Amino acid sequence: ETGVTQSPTHLIKTRGQQVTLRCSSQSGHNTVSWYQQALGQGPQFIFQYYREEENGRGNFPPRFSGLQFPNYSSELNVNALELDDSALYLCASSPEAWREGYEQFFGPGTRLTVL
Amino acid sequence: ELKVEQNPLFLSMQEGKNYTIYCNYSTTSDRLYWYRQDPGKSLESLFVLLSNGAVKQEGRLMASLDTKARLSTLHITAAVHDLSATYFCAVDSGNDYKLSFGAGTTVTVRA
Questions:
Q1: Which residue among A33, A98, A103 places its CB closest to the CB of B33?
Q2: What is the per-residue DSSP string for A76-111?
Q3: How far apart are CA A73 and CA B102, in angstroms?
Q4: What residues contact residue B111 under an 8 Å CB cut-off, 6+ apart?
Q5: Confidence of residue A112 (pLDDT cuts 50, 70, 90)
Q6: Which residues between 1 and 40 in chain B have a beta carbon less than 8 angstroms from any beta carbon of chain A?
Q7: Tens digit of pLDDT for each residue in B37-46?
Q8: For residue A45, what is the nearest residue in chain B, using CA coordinates?
Q9: Shortest Cα distance, chain B CAs vs residue A81, angstroms
Q10: Strands across the sheet with B71-76, in order?
């Protein structure tokens, strides 16, 4: 069984640029959530996708957007990058029964640095 | 908004001794998760607690959940160096589909 994978591993961008991060969910999982983890802090929920629809959003501006594809993989797009966007971006997937308290499985993360 | 507080934030442990990390949360929930994170790495699931009174143990770690007190504890028995990491608790309110994380407890085990 393949776990959650993310690409790229590391990324360096400059302010104002746009970035796309990718996530492949674990086999059998149709729910993908994205989290931002700034250095020294706990992860913060960005949004969740369930069967290709956004299914909840945290306190992030509209320049953070996402997609989920029919194979349940997902993208996180960030426009007009700011220095504070520098963080570890984590993708997590969970199975159909996530509403019943099944856990989310996290990928290895993408480290984004904005200069 | 659901708030999750962990304490202590930093814990220096002596090998062989016992310690407890506390996780308090602000709203009703009966789903709580503990994760471990090594420096520069992702989150590794430790425990899933899904009901009041739930207790789970794995090796030197034991987690419990008291939903009435809105409190979970992670107890470490006879600390060893390999347990050095940051530990996060996360709560699922069940209403808005997200996990709310605490700030983490950074554990360092010294000889």
A1: A103
A2: EEE-S--GGG-EEEEEEEEEGGGGGTPPPEE---EE
A3: 27
A4: B14, B15, B81
A5: very high
A6: 4, 30-31, 33, 35, 40
A7: 998 888 999 9
A8: B98
A9: 22
A10: B4-7, B19-25, B71-76, B61-66, B55-58
Residue type, position B33, single letter: Y
At A13, is the pLDDT very low, low, confident or very high (cuts 50, 70, 90)?
very high
Cα separation of B62 and B60, whole Å? 7
Contact A106 B35 (CB under 8 A): yes
Structure tokens that stand for A100 in this block? 């019943």
Nearest to A74 by CA among A1, A3, A6: A6
Q: Which residue has the tokens 């209403």?
A: B95
Give residue-wise pLDDT tens across range A29-83. 888 999 999 999 999 999 999 889 998 889 999 999 999 999 999 999 999 999 9
